[in-house]
Every structure is written in C-alpha cells, then in structure tokens.
C-alpha cells in the first residue's frame, strides 16, 4: 500500500484549477467593456448631442421665420400651404424640445409649452379667417410676433447673438 493516496492529491489540484478559465474569461470581458466605455462606444456624447440639437433647432427656426416673412397681408392662394409649413417647422422645434426633456428630464425643457400652443392657435385662427374671407392683418401680425418671440428664445437657448 501507498502511504499517500494519489487520488485525493489529483482531486485537490483539479479543483484549484477548475475556475481559472472562467476567471480568465471574466477578466477579458470586463477589460473589453472598460476599454469600449473609455473609447465612448455605446455612450452619449453630450457635446455632440447639444451640437446636433442646436443645429436642428436653428434650421427649423430659420425655415419658420423665412416662411412667415413670405406671408402676404392680402391672403394669397398659397397662404394655407405656407401656414402648414410654418406649423411643421414649429412642430420640429417642439419635437426637439420634447426630446431634450426626455433626455434630461424637466430641467432640460428649452421652451415652455404655451409658446407652441399660442403659435398653433394663431395659425388655426389665421387659416379660419382666410377660409371665410376675413381680413388677416391682425392674425399675420400676431403670428409674426409669436414666431419672432420663439426665434428670440431660440437664440437664447443655443447661445447666439441672432439667428
């Protein structure tokens, strides 16, 4: 008979090495995750987001202002189409505002909702007057003022002297 049992010695060695491959794989996975996180993969680059957001807001506001400036006091035949485009561009700014609220919470709100609601109400009133053949001078003035207010707020939001 042997003084030492080889079987028990073999089991002890095997148990101590059993977790080495699992531990190695875990270390590799954690290292890869940390490397990708440091490089910025899968993360939100806040500066890039703000630049993209500001560019989109600036673009939508420039289009809304340009369309507002094309409106005629006489109520041309294309006025309804122009009002639709203005609504579209203002809605684009509103969507970006909602996205910002979604990203940063209520503290990320760039515009108060009443600003958009006011513009939509003016556009609806303008279109109703246009359809019924009434004078649209007051509605045009209100819409121009509301768009200019939104444009001024946009300049404050994106930090420009003027847009």
Describe it for me?
The protein is mainly alpha-helical. The chain folds into 2 domains: 6-39; 46-158, Up-down Bundle (Four Helix Bundle (Hemerythrin (Met), subunit A)). It is built from 6 helices and no strands. Helix 3 packs antiparallel against helix 4, helix 3 (46-70) runs antiparallel to helix 6 (137-158) and helix 5 packs antiparallel against helix 6 (137-158). The longest helix has 26 residues, at 79-104. It is rod-shaped.
Core attributes:
Four Helix Bundle (Hemerythrin (Met), subunit A), rod-shaped, 6 helices, 2 domains, mainly alpha, 163 residues
CATH architecture of the largest domain: Up-down Bundle
Number of helices: 6
What portion of the residues fall into strands of 2 or more residues?
A: under 5%
CATH topology title of the largest domain:
Four Helix Bundle (Hemerythrin (Met), subunit A)
Residues in helix, %: over 70%
Order of secondary-structure elements = HHHHHH
The CATH class of the largest domain, by name, is Mainly Alpha
**What is the total tally of β strands?**
0
Main beta-sheet strand count, sense and barrel state: none
For the termini, the CA-CA separation is: 96 Å
Class by SSE composition: mainly alpha
Shape: rod-shaped
Concise structural overview:
The chain has 163 residues and is mainly alpha-helical. The protein has helices at 6-17, 20-39, 46-70, 79-104, 113-132, 137-158. Helix 5 runs antiparallel to helix 6.
Helix/strand layout:
Elements (H helix, E strand, L loop, with lengths): L5 H12 L2 H20 L6 H25 L8 H26 L8 H20 L4 H22 L5
Helix pairs in contact: 3-4, 3-6, 4-5, 5-6
């Amino acid at each position: 008979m042997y003084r030492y049992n080889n079987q028990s010695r073999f089991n002890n060695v095997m148990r101590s090495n059993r977790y080495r491959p699992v531990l190695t794989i875990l270390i590799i996975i954690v290292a890869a995750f940390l490397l990708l996180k440091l490089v910025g993969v899968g993360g939100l680059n806040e500066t890039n987001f703000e630049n993209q957001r500001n560019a989109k807001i600036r673009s939508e506001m420039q289009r809304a202002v340009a369309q507002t400036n094309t409106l005629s006091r006489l109520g041309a035949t294309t006025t309804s189409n122009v009002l639709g485009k203005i609504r579209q561009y203002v809605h684009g700014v509103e969507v970006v505002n909602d996205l910002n609220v979604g990203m940063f919470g209520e503290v990320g709100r760039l515009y108060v909702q009443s600003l958009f609601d006011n513009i939509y109400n003016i556009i609806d009133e303008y279109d109703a007057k246009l359809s019924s053949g009434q004078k649209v001078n007051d509605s045009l003035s209100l819409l121009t003022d509301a768009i200019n207010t939104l444009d001024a707020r946009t300049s404050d939001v994106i930090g420009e002297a003027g847009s």
